[in-house]
Automatic annotation (TrEMBL):
SUPFAM superfamilies reported in the protein's UniProt record: GroES-like, NAD(P)-binding Rossmann-fold domains
Single GO term (MF): zinc ion binding
The keyword Metal-binding is annotated on this UniProt entry: yes
Similarity comment: Belongs to the zinc-containing alcohol dehydrogenase family.
Annotated protein name in UniProt: Alcohol dehydrogenase
The keyword Kinase is assigned to this record: no
Organism encoding this protein: Kineococcus aurantiacus
EC number of this enzyme: 1.1.1.1
Highest taxon of the lineage: Bacteria
Length: 341
């Protein structure tokens, strides 16, 4: 099969012919129809993730068709169109037994612990726990975004932050996960302030339901626009400055949700714990979403209140993967870029 292969952290990836994967007894192999290019893939390429070993194929947001099935799989067959969370859970650990597969202690992750979906084929573990059936006619390019950014944003807003109608929500970063969080919060009846330095990203944020979109003087501006600070603030980027700004953007008893990764290589954020104590703030983490929660997200998409298709602003062939990966850090394209193997 063809795949985008990383042979040196930070070095230029190449399009290469590599061996086809085989399914584990509990897993499947999926023929990739579309795969999103995410900031997490960029971190893996840069060597910021200890799980990644070289040579490596990135990619963890995917949609496609089951091409091979392991002997122990009961719920899926060749030809099924599917997506999957980026956390492929074991299904048997205490966290999985409690329904929290997104923090499975024995998880694997395509594109991190193993080769991912910047390829024509990808192997996924524990298929009966992790695969999600796509509704008939669901476009592959938009379905690919569900595996990480959209699902992560949905759970962060709906479940972790538990956003309520009328609350002010500040979203720091209007990339794929930020735009998704904006749309989900707006659909929940919240009043959203988007923060992003890119004019194109701010324009998309307004189109996705934000009342305001700001670029500078972030903390003061959010406090002014919300009459004292946001009830909920989400760092959808994962930089020390966006994390700190998110916490400082909150009103008293507000909830900060950290979604963007904060690798040590980028520096540690100066979280103002004195403010956390004095304001009785909640500091929360959010890590993806379990497969069993996807029906709620698909219902929201089907309702028309979440414009999922509008998130995908660029579709490229697989051979454009190295260039698209390199462009992530510069944030030259608003919305989500999808590769089409």
């Amino acid at each position: 099969m063809r795949a985008v292969l990383v042979t040196e952290f930070g070095g230029t990836p190449v399009l290469a012919e590599v061996e086809d994967p085989a399914p584990a007894p509990h897993g499947v192999v999926v023929a990739v129809e579309a795969t999103g290019v995410c900031r997490s893939d960029w971190h893996a390429w840069q060597g910021h993730d200890d799980d990644v070993t070289l040579p490596h194929v990135p990619g963890h947001e995917l949609a496609g068709t089951v091409a091979a099935v392991g002997a122990d799989v009961r719920g899926w067959r060749v030809g099924d169109r599917v997506t999957s969370p980026f956390v492929t859970a074991c299904g048997t650990c205490p966290e999985c037994a409690a329904g929290a597969q997104q923090v499975c202690r024995d998880q694997t992750q395509p594109g991190f612990t193993g080769w991912g979906s910047f390829a024509e084929l990808v192997a996924l573990d524990h298929a009966d726990v992790n695969l999600v059936a796509l509704p008939e006619g669901f476009p592959a390019a938009t379905a690919a975004a569900l595996g990480c950014r959209v699902a992560t944003a949905f759970r962060a807003v709906s479940d972790v932050a538990a956003v309520r109608p009328g609350e002010f929500v500040a979203v720091h970063g209007a990339g794929g996960v930020g735009l998704s969080a904006i749309a989900v919060a707006a659909a929940a009846g919240a009043r959203v302030v988007a923060v992003d330095p890119s004019e194109g990203a701010r324009e998309l944020a307004l189109a996705f339901g934000a009342e305001h979109a700001v670029a500078a003087d972030v903390v003061d501006t959010v406090h002014e626009l919300t009459g004292g600070g946001a009830h909920v603030s989400i760092d959808a980027v994962g930089l020390p400055v966006t994390c700190e700004n998110s916490v400082r953007s909150l009103r008293r008893r507000g909830r900060h949700v950290q979604v963007g990764l904060l690798p040590a290589a980028a520096g540690r954020p100066a979280v103002p714990m004195d403010r956390v104590i004095a304001y009785e703030l909640q500091v929360l983490g959010s890590h993806g979403m379990a497969a069993h929660d996807y029906p709620r997200l698909l219902d929201l998409v089907g309702s028309g209140r979440f414009p999922l298709a509008d998130l995908v602003t660029r579709e490229l062939p697989l051979e454009a993967g190295p260039r698209a990966l390199a462009e992530v850090a510069a944030a030259t394209t608003a919305g989500i870029t999808v590769l089409r193997p």
